[in-house]
Amino acid sequence: MQLKLKTILNLKEKWSHFVYQDVRLNEVRIEPRIEIKVVPRQGSKGICSGCDKPCSAYDHLKERKFLHVPILGLKVVLLYCMRRLQCKDCGIVVESVPWSSGKSPLTISYAWFLSEWAKLLSMQEIARQFKLTWHHVFISVEMAVAWGRARIDLTGITAIGVDEIHWAKGSFMTVVYQIDNHCKRLLWCGEERTLETINAFFDWFGKKRTSLLKFVCSDMWRPYLKTISERAGNALSILDHFHVTQKLGKAIDEVRASETRSLVSKGKAIVLKHSRWALLKNPENLTDNQKIKLKDLLLCNLKTIRAYLLKEDFKGFWEYTSVTWAEKFLDAWCTQVMRSRLEPMKKVAKTIRSHKRLLLNWFEAKNIISLGTVEGQNNKAKVVIRKSYGFKTPEMLKMTLYHKLGKLPVPNIAHRYF
Fold first, then answer.
1. Under a CB-based contact definition with an 8 Å cutoff, are residues 66 and 106 in contact?
2. At what angle do helices 303-314 and 288-297 cross, to 10 degrees?
3. CA–CA dist 246, 281 (Å, integer)
4. Positive or negative CA dihedral for 364, 370, 375, 378?
5. How many CB atoms lie within 10 A of CB 188?
6. How far apart are CA 371 and CA 216, in angstroms?
7. Which of 142, 104, 108 is nearest to 123 (CA)?
8. What is the C-alpha separation between 89 and 50, in angstroms, rounded?
9. In this structure, are residues 140 and 105 in contact, taking their beta carbons and an 8 Å threshold?
C-alpha cells in the first residue's frame, strides 16, 4: 500500500526539494486516517517566506499537520516539521512550502478540491459532508476567487448587460454580465445601485476594452443610460426585454388594485379576487384554475381586462423583423394606450415613447447576442442567495457570485470532474 500511494503522490504532486518519507494508516485514533510524512530532500535549502530566496536552516518547529484531499472516505494528513531559516534580508523566518500557503491548515490541492465542490453546493453543506468547519471552505473559495480574478481573460468582450439584484432588505448589488453568444458570465459586481457604482465598473473595465464594446443591454434607469452613453458611446444601447414586460405587469397590477377598491366601495361582488397571477403570467404558464379564472374575466367589461389586452397586444412588438414596421406598431400602440384613460398604462406608454430609439435597437441586436442572458443570470444569482440562506456582508456575496457565475480560470491542480 505504501509503495502504491507514494507512486500516486509523486505522479500528481512531486516537489523537487521534498520527499514522501513514510505513508501509514493510523487506526489508533477514533477516526482512522492516512498520515504522510514529508521531509526535506537531503542537501536542499529552505525557501524564505519573505523574499523567496533559498536559505540555510538552523532549527525545526514542532510537527505540523496539513489536511490533504481525502481518499476512499479517509482523511489524509501531511506531517511536516517546518524549518526556521536564517535569511540575510529578512532575518529569522519560517520557510514556505509548496503544498500550503501561510498558516492555512489545508493543502493547496485540498483548497482547490473544496472550491470546486463549492460551485455545486453551499459552503455549509460542504463543511458538513467533509467534516470541516465553515471557515475552511470559506478560505478555499476566497483563494480560488482571488487567483481567478487576477488571471481573468477580458479579451473578445463585445456585449455586456447591466442590472441589479436585491439581496437583503433595502440592499442592492449592481451586476455586469458578458452576454456574447460564445461566453455568458458574471464580469463584475458592486455595492448598491448608484451612479458611482456603474462608473466604478467602467473604471475597472478600462477605456480600451470599453471602446471595443458593440452592445450594452440595461433597464430604463436614467443614471445607467446616461453613464453608458458617456462611457461607452461606440456601443449600441439596448433596453432589456424583461424590464419592459415588468413595467407593463406592474401597471396592470395597479389598475387591478384600484378597480378592486372601487368595486368594494360600491358594494359589488369582487370579481377580481384571486386574479393577480392569472393576469400577470403568460397564458401558456397558467394553471387550470387560473385559465378558468382568466376566461371568466375576459367576459367582463373591466378596466383591468382592457389593460391586460393592451399588455398582450404589445407582445407583437417583439415578433417583428423589420425595424420600420416595429416602429409603426409602437407608435400605434402608444396612441391607443394614451386614449385608454388607464393612468398606469399611460405612464408606461410615455416611458416607452421616451425610450423608443433604445427599444428599436433591440432588433439590431436580435439573433446576434444573447439578450435573455441578463435575466437568466439574475435568476441564477437569486438561487445562489436562496441556497445560502442569505449573506451577512456584500463582500461575501460578491465572492460567492464570482465563484459560481464568473467562469473563473483554475490551475491544473484543481480537482476535475470526469
1. yes
2. 110
3. 11
4. negative
5. 22
6. 10
7. 142
8. 9
9. no
Q: For position 91, what pLDDT does the model report?
A: 87
Cell of 230: 458617456
> What letter would DSSP give residue 260?
H
How many residues does this entry show for the chain? 418
Q: How many CB atoms lie within 10 A of CB 383?
A: 11
Identify the pLDDT of residue 372.
Answer: 83
What's the rounded Cα separation, in Å, for the pair 136 and 126?
10
Q: Which three cell numbers stand for residue 271?
A: 370579481
User: For 106-135, how does the pLDDT look when each residue is reduced to its tens digit (9 = 90+)?
Assistant: 999 999 999 999 998 889 899 999 999 999
- Taking residue 121's Cβ as centre, other Cβ atoms within 10 Å add up to 14
Q: Cα(first)–Cα(last) distance of the chain, in Å?
A: 25
Contacts 24+ apart (CB under 8 A), 22-28: 25/1, 25/74
Chain center to CA of 69: 27
Distances (CA, A) of 60 to 16, 25, 85, 97, 143: 20, 25, 9, 14, 28
- C-alpha cell at position 383: 438561487
Question: What pLDDT is attached to residue 1?
Answer: 46
Across the chain, mean pLDDT equals 90
Calculate the dihedral angle through the C-alpha atoms of 102, 103, 108, 113, rounding to the nearest 10 degrees: -140
d(CA 41, CA 25): 23
CA-based nearest residue to 393, from 125, 173, 124, 175: 173
Distance CA 116, CA 204 (A): 27
> Strand, helix or coil at 53?
coil
CA distance 99 to 418: 24
Largest pairwise CA distance in the chain = 96
Helix crossing, 222-231 with 195-205: angle to 10°?
Answer: 30
CA dist list (Å): 127 to 135, 273, 407: 9, 47, 23
pLDDT in tens, 296-325: 899 888 999 999 999 999 999 999 989 999
Containing 255, the helix (H) or strand (E) segment is helix 241-265
pLDDT less than 70: residues of the chain: 1-3, 269, 414-418
d(CA 237, CA 244): 15
